[in-house]
Specification:
The chain is an alpha/beta fold. The chain has two domains: 59-156, Ubiquitin-like (UB roll), CATH 3.10.20.310; 159-308, Rossmann fold (3-Layer(aba) Sandwich). 30% of the residues lie in helices and 25% in strands. β8, α6 and β9 form a beta-alpha-beta unit. α6 packs parallel to α7 (268-277). The longest helix has 25 residues, at 57-81. Residues 26-38 have low confidence and may be disordered.
Length: 311
């Protein structure tokens, strides 16, 4: 018999209540309370099926792939750098897209590369070798065409004048580029200005016409500007010019058969402007003259010195 005021017996440790066995929806809510959340989730985790273990064969695949990659890289290094598959067998020399077979200097440098590994060919070193051998060349590029061809493409400085070198009365013709290098000998270009230079020692091809390369370019530039400016200002053609090395002068020989003497250490435009102002008093087109001297300067700077021909 159960009495309402009877004390409930204490549960022993480890003894669980049978309430969780009941199938009431209200009890499920209580069962998933915050207090029992950790215990419930851990139990549910144990009830889930174990995760699949990845097969060990994937590791072997990675190892095999790495070995294969190393093998391919090793073979490529051998093929490009150590095998006979990429040796230089042919070469070409081109100037502005035209194949040049007559350039013995560059052809000689390229023929020396026959049998060398194309991959290991040093383009910069070859470019420096070509420029050192032919200083008249402005730009050089080297192309490697695998498996066995080298192409050298170059562009020269423009040819700007003819030089006639006079040594003890003997004359020799040269073409000169914009840097003062004598590029060709025993030939001339009638469309370019003519410059006569008398020296004690004969000039040589592929050298500057003066010992100082910088001074050669400066003197050449001054002479060509003097010719062009005189023809433009006075409408009179210059047949040739004479470079006086010791005097540092240039003498322009006109189609009227007189010289115009100019000091190369002084301003070119000022000297020709002085002659321009003197035209009102000196008719250079009809008066027979031996020379006009524009070198003199001083207090009377506007004065033009000239000499008439004897009649």
């Amino acid at each position: 018999m159960h009495f309402p005021f009877t004390k409930k017996k204490k549960k022993k440790e480890g003894q669980h209540s049978n309430i969780s066995k009941l199938k009431s929806p209200y009890l499920k809510k209580a069962f998933f309370s915050k207090k029992s959340k950790f215990i419930t989730e851990s139990r549910m985790a144990r009830m889930l099926p174990p995760a699949r273990i990845k097969p060990r064969s994937n590791k072997w695949k990675k190892v095999l792939a790495a070995i294969l990659a190393i093998g391919i890289i090793g073979y490529a290094i051998y093929a490009f750098f150590f095998s006979d598959n990429f040796l230089v067998q042919k070469y070409k020399v081109e100037e502005k897209g035209t194949i040049i077979e007559t350039n013995e200097v560059i052809n000689g440098l390229l023929s020396a590369k026959i049998g060398q590994n194309l991959t290991l060919l040093n383009e910069d070193r070859l470019i420096n070798e070509i420029k050192a051998a032919q200083p008249e060349i402005n730009k050089v590029s080297i192309k490697k065409i695998f498996p066995d061809t080298v192409i050298a493409q170059y562009e020269k400085y423009p040819t700007v004048a003819n030089i006639t070198n006079i040594v003890n009365g003997i004359q020799k013709k040269f073409l000169v580029d914009s840097q003062g290098f004598l590029t060709e000998e025993n030939t001339d270009n009638p469309n370019l200005p003519y410059i006569k230079i008398e020296t004690a020692i004969p000039m040589e091809i592929r050298t500057t016409f003066l010992t100082d390369a910088k001074r050669s370019a400066e003197r050449l530039d001054y002479i060509i500007k003097a010719i062009n400016l005189y023809e433009e200002k006075f409408g009179m053609k210059i047949i040739y010019s004479q470079l006086k090395l010791r005097e540092r002068e240039v003498h322009l020989y006109t189609e009227k058969y007189f010289f115009v003497m100019m000091d190369m250490e002084k301003d070119l435009a000022l000297q020709l402007e002085k002659l321009k102002k003197a035209l009102s008093k000196l008719d250079i087109y009809t008066v027979p003259l031996l020379y006009i001297d524009l070198r003199i300067s001083g207090s009377d700077f506007e004065k033009v010195i000239y000499k008439r021909k004897k009649t």
